[in-house]
Design brief:
Strand content: 25-35%
Helix content: 10-25%
Distance between the termini: 36 Å
Largest sheet: 6 strands, antiparallel
Number of helices: 4
Order of helices and strands: HHHHEEEEEEEE
Length: 154
């Protein structure tokens, strides 16, 4: 994010969620992972609660607003069918982080997230039939585990 080539991308993401300038994200003063999620999801769903903070769309989904719902993975007693567009979230120092499932092929889920190591990353996880069983955990890219899934409900 500190490279000059990153500024146009951060400007594009920041236009989705006005209020903080791209230069603040580029200078590493503000985390930009939520504007990345907002940018991606707003391209496919105008109802998504765009924000500069992950907690905004997590809280909105917890209230079942805008067609989204949040599912806690802590002590879950239900299986959850993962789908493209789901956001897997976890706490980080100073806030939260979210990664988007952008593709599922068989048992492999493909995720993308922003502001991990100051860049956008893509990675995979193996979940049989893309069904998360009760008590099952999914490891995030930083070594911890996801705690909440934000899902678009039909």
């Amino acid at each position: 994010e500190n490279s000059p080539a990153a500024l146009p991308l951060l400007e594009k993401y920041a236009r989705t969620t006005p209020g903080i300038s791209a230069s603040e994200y580029a200078s590493d003063r503000k985390p930009w992972s939520s504007i990345y999620v907002s940018y991606i999801l707003s391209k496919v769903d105008n109802n998504f609660k765009k924000s500069t903070a992950h907690k905004t769309y997590i809280n909105s989904a917890s209230r079942k607003e805008r067609g989204y719902e949040a599912f806690s993975l802590k002590n879950s007693d239900k299986s959850i069918q993962l789908q493209v567009g789901d956001i897997l979230t976890y706490p980080r120092p100073g806030g939260n982080h979210g990664d988007i499932i952008y593709k599922i092929v068989g048992d492999t889920i493909y995720l993308t997230g922003g502001n991990i190591g100051n860049t956008v990353i893509v990675f995979t996880r193996t979940i049989p039939s893309a069904i998360l069983k009760p008590g099952e955990k999914i490891k995030n890219s930083e070594g911890g585990y996801y705690e909440v899934i934000v899902k678009k409900m039909s």
